[in-house]
Amino acid sequence: MTAAARRIGILGGTFDPIHRGHVDIGDAAQAALDLPEVQIITSHVPPHRPPPEASSYHRFAMVALTTIDRPTWRASDVELRHETPSYTSRTLRELHGRGYEPIELCFVIGADAFADIASWRDYPDILQAAHFVVVSRPRFPAAALVERLPHLADRMVQRPGDPPPPRMFHPRRSAAGWRRARRSTGWCRPACSNTLNSTDFTGRRRRSGAPRMRARARRQAGCMAKTEKRRKPTRLPAQIERAIDAAEDKKAIDLVVLDLRKAAGFTDFFVIASGANARQVRAIADAVMETIAAGDRAKPAHVEGYDRSEWILIDYFDFIVHVFAPETRAFYGLERLWGNAERIDVASGR
Q1: Residue 4: which pLDDT band, with cuts at 50, 70 and 90?
Q2: Is pTM, for the whole model, over 0.85?
Q3: Which domains, and CATH codes, for the chain?
């Protein structure tokens, strides 16, 4: 396979939440550079900004939903597998370890973020790890980088047919050498500037209903495989059994356990259940926490969503309990998003 065929775009971010501005940047880069694939990488612990309000699980779910209608986009959990800060240099090294050469990686970034590249970990060596494809942002055109970063001006490459100045940073070659080597590289024109806020984005998706899962969408995030098949019974840990007992005592609906030990690095199991209304959702969550506290004297690392009771997330590190309202569960579709995980029949797994 040629380097051009293996080239991938990389769009990383906190995505708290992902919105139209992020999507526009990815679309602009993919169209300008004819990228066969774009990987959307959700950071777990962003090193350059305050901690996000939403958990990494919520943010990854929103990213995965965004990729559904884009068959060449992939939601990646490569940074969610680490508890340490999500440094881009480490992520690029992991991609190198998977067989990608620096010349095959196009790291898509806004001009405002690239202006601070000198503050990034492993600078300037990080510039050798990938192309950095810079997209103009509202009130920060990529043209400003020539003056802002004059020491990098000789590495900026203009895409043929586009107006100056150049905006692409090649990992090794000079600008002239890169122009001779490849015609398809270059900078991206400004993306659409109508960035929507989180309410606009999630509201539009909610009003439209849960997106239909097309066959091609099963490829997204490497976790859209079939979930219907049952495998040999798996013996569940005692704490999970107690969580299941507590949920069943409160008449939980559609109780499911997903074995993520081969599918994710941040936890081993998901326990997923639904309550018919907010009151039942809270009752199930309370029962789970009280039962585990009584039997194991264990408290969750954190609990999210209790006040609204549409999706209560209870994190015990080794497993995570998700208690949903029915509409919210259908909207996020965790069973579909983590379709490569083993789905355990609760009766046979106990």
Answers
A1: low
A2: no
A3: 3-207 (3.40.50.620), 225-344 (3.30.460.10)
